[in-house]
């Protein structure tokens, strides 16, 4: 790991993603117009693209750092969970699904923290990666919300949110199983 200081391009993209969270909150305080919905989708998609780009750049340029490794997933969680929470009062996302997703994120973050303190690394599962993809697409559809070209974006977003929730629970169970298995090996 190369120490290049905090303000490199990958960390700057991550900080930008964190700074976009309150912008999304502001945009979703009231029912967005179709134009505001379009802007919110563009901001969300841009944030998700920077999530991919900053990690790729950090690895490519050997700028991986403990701070970046902490902030990158935090920025992703802040954006997705905050937007999901803001979609609940707009009747675009069921509160119980958002609660399940939020509880899973908190539980897995805590579990990974404990595992890290014990010297364990719990690798991301394929379900966890699928959860991220399905959740990002679902949120994009739910942000758009309006019917366009005969496509009911809201219904498609809800269907994808169900898939993301299934993948989220499955990956949560995987992380817990791996933690227990690794704990037994080190005991």
Describe this entry's structure for a reader:
The protein is mainly alpha-helical and 187 residues long. The protein has two domains: 1-90, Up-down Bundle (Four Helix Bundle (Hemerythrin (Met), subunit A)); 92-187, no CATH class. 77% of the residues lie in helices and 0% in strands. The protein contains six helices and no strands. It has helices at 9-27, 34-60, 66-87, 95-117, 126-144, 153-186. Helix 1 (9-27) runs antiparallel to helix 2 (34-60) and helix 2 packs antiparallel against helix 5 (126-144). The longest helix has 34 residues, at 153-186. The mean pLDDT is 90.
Provide the helix percentage: over 70%
What is the average per-residue confidence, as pLDDT, rounded to a whole number?
Answer: 90
Q: Spans with pLDDT under 50 lasting ≥5 residues?
A: none
Counting copies of identical and different chains, the oligomeric state is single chain
Amino-to-carboxy terminus distance: 31 Å
Order of helices and strands: HHHHHH
Number of strands: 0
Compute the number of structural domains: 2
Biggest pleated sheet: none
Number of helices: 6
Gyration radius from CA atoms, angstroms: 18 Å
The share of residues in extended strands comes to under 5%
Tertiary shape: globular
Question: Structural class of the helices, strands and pairings?
Answer: mainly alpha
Topology:
Layout: H1 9-27, H2 34-60, H3 66-87, H4 95-117, H5 126-144, H6 153-186
Helix pairs in contact: 1-2, 1-3, 2-3, 2-5, 3-4, 3-5, 4-6, 5-6
Entry summary:
The protein has helices at 9-27, 34-60, 66-87, 95-117, 126-144, 153-186.
């Amino acid at each position: 790991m190369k120490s290049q200081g905090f303000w490199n391009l990958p960390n700057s993209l991550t900080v930008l993603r964190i700074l976009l969270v309150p912008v999304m909150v502001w945009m979703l305080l009231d029912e967005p117009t179709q134009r505001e919905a379009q802007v919110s989708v563009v901001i969300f998609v841009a944030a998700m693209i920077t999530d991919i780009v900053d990690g790729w750049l950090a690895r490519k340029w050997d700028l991986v750092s403990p701070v970046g490794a902490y902030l990158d997933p935090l920025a992703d969680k802040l954006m997705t969970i905050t937007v999901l929470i803001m979609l609940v009062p707009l009747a675009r996302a069921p509160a119980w699904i958002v609660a399940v997703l939020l509880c899973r994120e908190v539980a897995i973050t805590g579990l990974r923290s404990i595992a890290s303190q014990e010297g364990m690394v719990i690798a991301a599962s394929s379900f966890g990666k699928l959860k991220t993809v399905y959740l990002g697409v679902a949120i994009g559809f739910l942000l758009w919300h309006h019917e366009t070209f005969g496509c009911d974006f809201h219904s498609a977003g809800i269907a994808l949110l169900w898939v993301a929730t299934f993948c989220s629970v499955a990956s949560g169970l995987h992380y817990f199983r791996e933690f227990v298995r690794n704990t037994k090996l080190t005991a």
